[in-house]
Design goal:
205 residues; mainly alpha; Vanadium-containing Chloroperoxidase, domain 1; elongated
Amino acid sequence: MFDRIQDMDRELFLFLNSQNTHSLDYLMILFSARLPWLPLYLAIIFSLFWKCSFDMSREGFFNKIVIEKRDRKAGWIMLAAILATFFLTDFLSNQIKYMVDRLRPGWDPCTYHLARVIENNRFSFSFVSSHASNVFGLAVLTSWFFKVRWYKILIFSWALIVCYSRVYVGRHFPGDVIFGAMFGTLLAMVSIMVVKYLLKRINSK
């Protein structure tokens, strides 16, 4: 049964990995990288402490932008929760990799000769995806804090594309990113419970 699931995962990988175009390569490499998304992370941190809105009654574009301070204590708790969630998803997903010992598509004997690997094909293990754990942990945690529909759509769309990019560039099987996303979601939900508890304690004082 387990072998059959792995075979299906490999088949799905080969199908998705083969759906490529030259122009899409650059976009998927961008989504798969970490450094280009630093401005997004900084914008999220900024938004933990300041709320930006538009006052349409004012004249001039820049005059319409209204920046208000958020609750500082809540902001610091959320920042600590984001950092802790990122650390745990990254650290624990790597521990799982070494326990499971699943080879990446570019090294797997069943796929290495067919996989299209356009990212560094260094030897390491595949299950679960740290990228998927990181981005879904961030998406779930911050979407709970901001509670704005457009943000939820954007952050989860970004997280899904990042997960797909890991299959596209040949670094992960679909099962790796699916379980990685589930793992990141689970840790984020635990973080939300801790944040709720801390905020309740603060507000009750």
